[in-house]
Amino acid sequence: MAIRIDKKIKGYQVVKPDDKPAPIAAPAEEPEAEVIQMHESLERPETLVGNTYKIKSPLFEHALYVTINDIVLNPGTPHEQRRPFELFINSKNMDHFQWIVALTRILSAVFRKGGDVTFIVEELKAVFDPRGGYFKAGGIYMPSIVAEIGAVIEQHMKSIGLIHDPDMSEATRQLIAEKRAAYEKATATTPPVGARLARDPAAESSPTDAEPPSHTNAAGFPAGATLCSKCNTQALVMMDGCQTCLNCGYSKCG
Question: How large a percentage of the chain has pLDDT more than 70?
Fold first, then answer.
């Protein structure tokens, strides 16, 4: 096949069949940063950063103090991250000393093992006390003290970016606000539960001294709201024949 050359030839070379082609130089590889991942052979630094959380439960006479220390991996690089490294629980209450020590050692070992340790949160929050749970400040139900320890670990993992809450869409927020406004408007003229109970004659003689009944619970939702099985908050109300949560938007009707 003939090839037409339009430019001026400045030099030439005869290539024989036995000649080997010149090797093509490979492009220089850019040096990659060595990313350190969490694993059980990682040595503990002299200093760790962490947070301490207070748990005040009606099941215990004294409060529990949960301390979670984090190790900082790849400091000063784009891959910098904090990972839980160890957990301690301290309290004046010695009734449950054995299982508290066992729990702290197991959780610390799981943290140091590496990998995805967020499963611990769901496992601990699923523990139920056979004697019954309790409501903590804010009207959030806790099925057991172990479940609240799991909630504390979840709160800490969210603060260091290990767990991310799914963002609620603006349309969902607006829908919840509209449902709450409609519910409060519908129940504004309805007397609260217990309003028809017998009155004290002394209270009737001085109506100005009586405090008006509260129409909201500890979580700030309507007083008649029940417990939501999704967010464990007393915010579940009956609207349009369907139970709807005014906190997370959960509805049994879909």
Answer: 80
**Within-domain flag for 241:** yes
The model's confidence at residue 33, banded by pLDDT at 50, 70 and 90, is low
Which stretches within 66-222 are classed as H helix?
Answer: 97-113, 119-125, 145-159, 170-186, 201-205
- Chain centroid to CA 113: 21
Number of domains in the chain: 2
CA gap 76, 30 in Å, rounded? 20
Determine which helix (DSSP H) or strand (DSSP E) holds 142, and give its type and residue range: strand 140-142
Query: Looking at the predicted structure, is the pLDDT value of residue 208 above 50?
Result: no
Instruction: Residue 224: give the domain boundaries.
Output: 167-185+216-254
Residue at 199 is within a domain: no
Q: Quote the CA–CA distance of 148 and 56 in Å, as a whole number.
A: 10
- Whether 174 and 107 share a structural domain: no
- Both tokens assigned to 217: 């619970």
Judge contact between 60 and 19, C-beta under 8 A. Answer: no
| Whether the Cβ atoms of residue 103 and residue 66 lie closer than 8 Å to each other | no
Could you tell me the end-to-end alpha-carbon distance of the chain, in angstroms, rounded to an integer? 73
Does 115 reside within a domain?
Answer: yes
Q: Which amino acid is at 72?
A: V
